[in-house]
Amino acid sequence: MNGEEKTKRTRRRVAGEKDGGDEEKVGWKENVRSLGVAVIFFLILRTFVLQTFFITSGSMEDTLLVGDFLVVNRASVGGRLPFSQAHVPGYRSPERGDILVFDPPHTDEFRLVKRLVGVPGDRLEMRDQVLYLNGEAQDEPFTRHGPEADESDPRMAWQSSILAPDADAASYRPTRDNWGPLIVPEGHYFMLGDNREMSYDSRYWGLLEDWRVEGTVSFIYFSYNRNSYRPFAFIREVRWDRIFDGVD
């Protein structure tokens, strides 16, 4: 092989390696771009359309059980913009009876799920565990009551600030099962857990500002007995009858 042929082969090899390197760079950039688009799409979906929620307490039993995994519809009431009080428009406002996931006013460490029982302008009171809305006793078949005796709690003192005009503020002594009448002010909601004697809710920590709502619970996409002592309970203790159940 003469020197001229060697030079030609060397040039072809170098050109091939260069082309291959360019293709690898293009492929890497395409992968990064695709990953970026996927991440952005996921963040938009989670912020404004859907999110998931996991039940860790019994405050909503028997409607929701510990170990239920929920899909939350954020589009219904409008997803909240991160790190702000602003919401994108939803297609409806929260309604009485909705089960909402929200950012509670008393802590920044976790989200809560409760049932909306009072909207602005409502007159609410409870007498011997029966909820009254605008003077009418409510039929609430979803509630659960235990044998616990009624009790007072100093955290309920905030209620005096929204007492109905005809209530005697001087003698007002609310208890867990007997309180009100209260008038829900504009821009706020009153939330209760379905497991009434075991729920830490608006009776104690106060009203929920409307901007704190993050979405309405749609359905259960997975459930298992989280309290089971059996190993691998998330596999062996699946509640098949609850999967894809709607929530109301």
Question: Biggest β-sheet: count, sense, barrel?
Answer: 7 strands, antiparallel
Summed over residues and divided by their number, the pLDDT gives a mean of: 86
Uncertain regions spanning at least 5 consecutive residues: none
**Which term fits the overall shape?**
globular
- How many discrete structural domains? 2
The end-to-end distance, rounded to whole angstroms, is 85 Å
One letter per element, helices H and strands E, the order comes to: HEEEEEEEEEHEEH
Which structural class do the helices and strands define?
alpha+beta
Spatial arrangement of strands, main beta sheet: 1-2-11-3-4-9-10
Q: Tell me the helix content.
A: 10-25%
Oligomer: single chain
What is the CATH H-level superfamily of the largest domain? Umud Fragment, subunit A
Written description of the protein model:
- The structure is a single chain.
- It is built from three helices and eleven strands.
- The strands form two sheets. The chain has a seven-stranded antiparallel sheet. A four-stranded antiparallel sheet has the order 7-6-5-8, with no helix packed on it.
- The termini are far apart.
- It has two domains: 1-48; 51-242, Umud Fragment, subunit A, CATH 2.10.109.
- It is globular.
- The protein is α+β, with helices and mostly antiparallel strands and 248 residues long.
- 22% of the residues lie in helices and 23% in strands.
Question: What is the gist of this entry?
Answer:
Helices cover 22% and strands 23% of the residues. It is α+β, with helices and mostly antiparallel strands.
Keywords:
Umud Fragment, subunit A, four-stranded antiparallel β-sheet, 2 domains, alpha+beta
